[in-house]
Specification:
The chain is an alpha/beta fold. Helices cover 48% and strands 15% of the residues.
Length: 455
């Protein structure tokens, strides 16, 4: 009989758990990808703490506590009833009420919501705030819809969702397709149904009715703050670095803004139609006017700046040489080929502003080529961190200044970096922030689950 050492026992345990999950969830590739990336990095934890295996902790944490699916029927401007699907995955409440965004996009399905919710457990844990993991959304596409249609959809969506959320139970926020406009409609409908004013039920609200200053900027700023700490490993800063940022929503816009404030030359950004390349530096006021004021497409940038180039199709943005790449658009936007191109062009660091924007193959290539890598669950945790600060302000009936919130955000991102780095070192993977972030996020939730027992 062959005796396995603790590391082999741990890996065998993870293999068995993942094999069983794969057999039952083969139709959910995004979810499987997210689980695989996280659980295999936890092998050193299970080797050192076998009581986690004895408590079947992995089997318990990969299964959501609750999955809610519902029909959303709403009327378009022509009086025709349209039907979409709504989701809320309440993944883990071990360390606090469920917390996670709502995504409105045609690609939304149960696999994507579960991958986002699973990642949210560890991201929320890393912030140090008392919030559990959740995610939700719908396959509704706000693009091309009138304000009235979006309002009617949001009201129909909340009419169903309100049964499952509350300030002490589950606190949603925004995500792709859900900005301040949608949050306002959702919040208004919740209050009408409850006949109350309950600001703590949703975050991402406008500051004039209970929102937090710096929430819009938080994810983008936080990503840059995290990368700023990471760059210290090679005695570098953002000063005079060439940066490429994908996307042109809130995350991208404010990652560009903060990188530029720190002295970087940001030369490209994108939307789902294509990307712009401006070698002299992206003019952020123009991007904000197009996206935040007029709701236009990024190709309109060249109308104001004809010296820039617009390219149809957003996938080739990573062919632009850069020192720092900040993928801030969507999942799996950097595959192995894109990673190889970035590496060949001399990229020094990749900071993930979006959720899971790099494939597993791309991540392997970063490590093989000594590219500094800031994983999403750590680097883009700034948004949910400030959402938690918004919850705190709502609970205390207080309102902090932009500078106060930004300072708290900066400190939270420093701590996430520090804790991820220390966890990686403690468990034998020094300088691997992916493993470090996974472990640091997992330990807090695991210990809470053990302490609370099995129900």
């Amino acid at each position: 009989m062959v005796t396995m050492n603790p590391e082999q026992v741990a890996m065998h345990y993870i293999d068995e758990v993942y094999k069983n999950l794969e057999a039952t969830h083969a139709h959910e590739p995004e979810f499987l990808q997210a689980v695989k990336e996280i659980i295999y990095s936890l092998a050193p934890v299970f080797a050192k703490r076998p009581e986690y295996m004895e408590a079947s902790l992995l089997e318990r944490i990969i299964e959501p506590e609750r999955v809610v699916k519902f029909r959303v029927a709403w009327e378009d401007d022509n009086g025709k009833v349209q039907v979409n699907r709504g989701f809320r995955v309440q993944y883990s409440s071990a360390i606090g009420p469920y917390k996670g965004g709502l995504r409105f996009h045609p690609s939304v399905n149960e696999s994507i919501i579960k991958f986002l919710g699973f990642e949210q457990i560890f991201k929320n844990s890393l912030t140090g705030q008392p919030i559990g993991g959740a995610k939700g959304g719908s396959d509704f596409d706000p693009k091309g819809k009138s304000d009235s249609e979006i309002m009617r959809f949001c009201q129909a969506f909340m009419t169903e969702l309100h049964k499952y959320i509350g300030p002490h139970e589950d606190v949603p926020a925004g995500d792709i397709g859900v900005g301040a406009r949608e949050i306002g409609f959702l919040f208004g409908q919740y209050n009408r149904i409850k006949a109350s004013y309950l600001p703590g039920v949703i975050t991402g609200k406008l500051p004039r009715f209970g929102g937090s200053l710096a929430r819009k900027e938080a994810t983008g700023y936080g990503t840059v703050y995290f990368v700023q700490e990471m760059l210290k490993e090679i005695n570098a800063t953002f000063e005079n670095q060439t940066v490429v940022v994908s996307g042109s929503g809130n995350v991208s816009t404010y990652a560009i803004e903060k990188a530029q404030q720190l002295g970087a030359l940001v030369v490209a950004c994108s939307d789902s139609d294509g990307y712009i390349h401006d070698p002299s530096g992206i003019k952020l006021d123009t991007v904000k006017d197009i996206k935040e004021v007029r709701g236009g497409r990024i190709k309109e940038y060249i109308d104001a700046h004809p010296e820039a180039t617009y390219v149809e199709g957003c996938e080739n943005i990573w062919s632009i040489p850069c020192d720092i790449a900040l993928p801030c658009a969507t999942q799996n936007e950097i595959d192995a080929d894109a990673a190889k191109t970035l590496i060949a062009n001399g990229v020094k660091a990749v900071g993930e502003g979006a959720n899971m924007p790099s494939t597993l193959e791309a991540i392997d290539l970063y490590f093989e080529n000594n590219v500094l890598f800031a994983p999403a669950k750590a680097a883009n945790a700034g948004g949910v961190a400030v959402s938690a600060l918004e919850m705190a302000q709502n609970s205390m009936r207080m309102f902090w200044t932009f500078e106060e919130v930004d300072a708290k955000l900066h400190e939270i991102m420093r701590n996430i970096y520090k804790n991820s780095r220390e966890a990686a070192k403690e468990f034998g993977h020094e300088n691997n922030l992916l493993i470090g972030a996974n472990i640091a996020g997992f330990l807090k939730v695991a210990d809470a689950m053990i302490a609370q027992g099995v129900i």
